[in-house]
Amino acid sequence: MALDIKKVLISQPKPETEKSPYFDIAEKFGVKIDFRPFIKVEGISAKEFRTQRVNILDYTAVIFTSRTAIDHFFRLCEELRVQIPETMKYFCVTEAIAVYLQKYTVYRKRKIFFTAGKVQDLMVPIVKHSKETYLFPVSDVHNDDLIKLLDEKKINYKLAVMYRTVSNDFTPEEKFDYDMLVFFSPSGISSLMKNFPEFEQNDIKIGCFGSSTAQAVKDAGLRLDVQAPTQETPSMTAALEKYLKELSKNGKKK
């Protein structure tokens, strides 16, 4: 039986590799998946950064939850003429982020730590190295899940805003005829409402990643249909595939 969902918008850039699970999902369920970020990132200037009164060299370790954070951390270091010592340790939420560090520093296992993608798991090596002083580069709008865990474990850390997210506005020529929208940050929801102030959800399904994004969906008065991560679906692709599988079984949403 045909799916109700024919066209899905993933509010992220298109994956660089054809091996992305999104392409497998599109082929498996016969849906069209478009990639179109609702937000874009702008780096803050060195002048703006100085107002935070953060001295990067006061810290012995850096926490990275995205490649964007890595790019802007090293960009600001260059603009501020900060020479990062070889002893600096890096704690990354995924292996892909850890590998990305090779763009800027020599990859050494003794100074780079990573987990499988859950912020809870990242706390294991962080707690093990609890004597370090951590710098946590973030966007002006960021996920609080890891921050709560750092506070609970009384880790010595400092947030440093190094980039900001702004709305990536749609043009009048762009079609917006999707059966499902998938978001990854509260900023994406804000951008949706900014671009389409008269937006009515009706039968459009909304999926999201992260608790703060889920809260933003609800705060906007929208219905949340699919959420990740959960124990059963740790990634957005896993949650999307499970949802489409259930729809294909039932022929329609229960």
List the helices and strands and how they pair.
Blueprint: E1 7-10, H1 21-29, E2 32-35, E3 39-43, H2 46-50, E4 61-64, H3 67-79, E5 89-92, H4 95-100, E6 112-114, H5 119-128, E7 134-139, H6 145-152, E8 157-167, E9 180-183, H7 186-195, E10 205-209, H8 211-219, E11 226-228, H9 236-250
Parallel strand pairs: 1-2, 1-9, 4-5, 4-7, 5-6, 7-8, 9-10, 10-11
Antiparallel strand pairs: 3-8
Helix pairs in contact: 1-9, 7-8
Task: Kindly report how far apart the N and C termini lie.
Answer: 14 Å
Number of domains: 2
Overall mean confidence score, pLDDT: 92
What's the story with the biggest beta sheet?
A: 6 strands, mixed
Identify the CATH architecture of the largest domain.
3-Layer(aba) Sandwich
Low-confidence stretches: none
CATH class of the largest domain: Alpha Beta
What are the secondary-structure elements, in order, as H or E?
A: EHEEHEHEHEHEHEEHEHEH
Summed up, the helix count is 9
- The CATH topology name of the largest domain reads Rossmann fold
Overall geometry: globular
